Amino acid sequence: MNRNRLKPMKIVYSIAGTYNSGGMERVLANKANWLVRNGYEISILTTDQKGRSSFFEFDPRIRFYDLGINYEENNGKSFLNKLICYPFKQWKHKKSLKKLLSELKADVVISMFCNDASILPKIKDGSRKVLEIHFSRFKRLQYGRKGIWKLADELRSRNDLRVVSKFDKFVVLTEEDKGYWGELDNITVIPNARSFVVEKPAELNENKVIAVGRYCYQKALDRLIAAWRVVCQDIKDWKLHLVGDGEDRVLLQKQINELGLAGKVVLGRAEIDMKSVYSSASVLALSSRYEGLPMVLLEAQAAGLPIVSFECKCGPKDVITDGLDGILVREGDVDGLAQGLLKLIKDEELRRRMGAEAYKNSERFSEERVMAQWVELFNEVCDK
């Protein structure tokens, strides 16, 4: 890409917070750092930071503003509590956001599809409004909630179509997800970029399978642990290392103990140095119920790891070519996941061949290629 063509402008990102170790936060850090290195003026607005440090490193030239709305303090509360509190928080959010944006005078404001998505297009500050989603069209329907919460999720999912149509551009991560949104004039596809480049791919000689992600319902690590029990009935000298953190840690540890997998499954913590995590493994497993475009898949491929993944919506099918650089398993088929893992564990030649293909194919998601698409989008919306 000819960097002389870059048009410096003011970009503002809006997100709940940057303190989590999730994929969305990692993507934001990567993009914001790249943009500021290339002459853009970057600001990040949060609603729930509460003075907490960012998990990932941000360039010191990036400016941060926390609006102090604190939506998350209502998490876990009753439906009635949220029904009463949410409108007030939205009013406060809109008022604070309008005031700050009028001062920042941004060229482009980007919502990460948090609580600002329904507010942002209504604010007339002269900026172009872009919405990016890091899940999929059906994310609200995949929470697995019951009763009145399920009804609320269905109503919000239908409302999402109205919300996304109000933005100048709506960015999804995969061609698969684009198809689920129907005929939208403003929709475009820009994938995530890999987080790093590995000069020497993983040697794939460690008896270790890894899974990376938040310990929560979405990542469904309970299904992977169940699959690992099947693996252990056949293979005795391999371990499963889970890398992450989250609200399901206690439940996962209980499952590990009850299945007699203590010592065979390691429940680790979130790590900063992910290069070392991938380089010390031989296979990556992904058991998610739903995704957008999992960063762990891009990172694993960049490190030369073969992948065994459920074919969930959305992402795995856009990254993995089944039988070439990994193995795709029918969504929810726990035994199929176990058999896919066993196939790569037992066949070293296959493991190395798929790892080599993964390493080569990761170039599709290079930072230069992906950020060139974002620069083109910024220029397009600002030239309207």
Ordered list of secondary-structure elements with their pairings:
Blueprint: E1 10-15, H1 23-37, E2 41-46, E3 63-66, H2 79-104, E4 108-111, E5 128-132, H3 147-164, E6 169-172, H4 175-180, E7 187-189, E8 208-212, H5 221-232, E9 239-243, H6 249-258, E10 265-267, H7 274-279, E11 283-286, H8 295-302, E12 307-310, H9 316-319, E13 326-329, H10 334-346, H11 348-361, H12 367-382
Parallel strand pairs: 1-2, 1-4, 2-3, 4-5, 5-6, 6-7, 8-9, 8-11, 9-10, 11-12, 12-13
Helix pairs in contact: 5-10
General description of the model:
By secondary structure, the protein is α/β, with parallel strands linked by helices. The protein is 39% helix and 15% strand. It has 12 helices and 13 strands. The strands form 2 sheets. It has a 7-stranded parallel beta sheet with strand order 3-2-1-4-5-6-7. It has a 6-stranded parallel beta sheet with strand order 10-9-8-11-12-13, with helices on both faces. β8 (208-212), α5 (221-232) and β9 (239-243) form a beta-alpha-beta unit. α5 (221-232) packs across α10. Residues 1-6 have low confidence and may be disordered.
